[in-house]
């Protein structure tokens, strides 16, 4: 889930792209770019701080060589 954070915590939105039936929202965190899919009616501004939470069952992680990290 993504939330707007009135207290300034979280990361600023780096990019926001409407993809038809969804939106792709990206933030920079830990030196990496993290992208999540949101509903097509998600409204936000570039630079707006948001926080992101992802359930482990929906998360796919890979090491630097591209090998999947098992959870």
Structural description of this entry:
With 71 residues, the protein is an all-beta fold. Helices cover 0% and strands 49% of the residues. It is built from no helices and seven strands. Strands 1-5-2-3-4 form a five-stranded antiparallel beta sheet, with no helix packed on it. A two-stranded antiparallel ribbon has the order 6-7. A hairpin with a 2-residue loop joins strand 3 and strand 4. The mean pLDDT is 85.
State the share of residues found in helices, binned by percent: under 10%
The gyration radius over C-alpha positions equals: 13 Å
The overall pLDDT average reads 85
Q: How many beta-strand runs?
A: 7
Q: Termini distance?
A: 20 Å
Instruction: Enumerate the spans where pLDDT stays under 50 for 5 or more consecutive residues.
Output: none
Rough shape?
globular
SSE layout and pairings?
Layout: E1 2-4, E2 11-18, E3 22-29, E4 32-39, E5 49-52, E6 61-62, E7 68-69
Antiparallel strand pairs: 1-5, 2-3, 2-5, 3-4, 6-7
